[in-house]
Design brief:
globular
């Protein structure tokens, strides 16, 4: 697997620092364990709403990855549309990778449009 984001999510899962599912994410946030919430690009807006609200109340960063539920599920070995990262190191690295990916895509888009 050459996708660094998916590889990192798989590693996080094997380390026991990944909580999968919308309701478990809310529970992780309320227990003050969550460091970052990630969503699949095709995750339901209705399901996302409750998690986003809880994350905002508790000042937890959220990221929507440019990956489908199928891609993320394959990487972590379980059906996954929303996940909570419960480790500072994994959360920081994943946030940087996701931000870099969005920045690069924005620059490329500007070049194509320009």
């Amino acid at each position: 697997m050459n996708d660094r984001i998916l590889s990192l999510l798989g590693l996080c899962r094997r380390a026991g620092k990944l909580v999968i599912g919308a309701d478990p994410c809310v529970e992780s946030i309320t227990k003050k364990k969550s460091r970052l919430i990630v969503f699949a690009s095709d995750f339901s807006q209705n399901s996302k709403k409750g998690v986003l609200e809880c994350a905002r109340k508790n000042d937890i960063m959220t990221v929507t990855l440019n990956r489908s539920k199928d891609e993320i599920s394959f990487a972590v070995g379980r059906l996954c549309g929303a996940a909570s990262i419960e480790d500072d190191g994994f959360a920081k690295k994943l946030a940087v990778l996701a931000d870099n990916e969005q920045t690069k895509r924005g620059e490329l888009y500007d070049k194509v449009q320009g």
